[in-house]
Amino acid sequence: MQKQVEPLKTIIEAAAKIHGHLGPFLVLGVKMGEAALKKLGGLQKGSLRVKLKVPLQTPYSCLIDGVQTATQCTVGNRKLELENSDENFIAGYFKNEDSDDVLVIRVKPHIIEALMTEMAPPNYPEEAMEALAWKTAEKTEEELFSFR
Ligand SMILES: [Zn+2]
User: Which of 12, 79, 115, 117 has the fewest CB atoms within 10 Å, i.e. the most exposed one?
Assistant: First the structure.
């Protein structure tokens, strides 16, 4: 496993435990949530709110559980709002309630397309899915996301 994946390993495994399986969109969610925490910086506990625009169907929606695990903003604690979107649009709106700063993190459309193409064959095996998940974990935030 590559060096940059090590710090994420524990949280990706925690996300997979909640979610029931490990896949690349779950990993995208973990990495998106971690990137938001890092870029917003100095967040007080409990002051983050998240809105996710994501197609509300698997495998896209797997991303939701990754974000929930990384940020502890969940549907249950009412700090996460979900909105359905088109297939090549996945974005998170991360708001610091204390400063009103909003960070938008969008998954680059070509990343979504590449994953969907890779997973297109029927009965795509679980081992291949997990391998693709770890391969996604190795990509940098800049490769996966655009920020504003
Ligand atoms: Zn899933």
Answer: 117
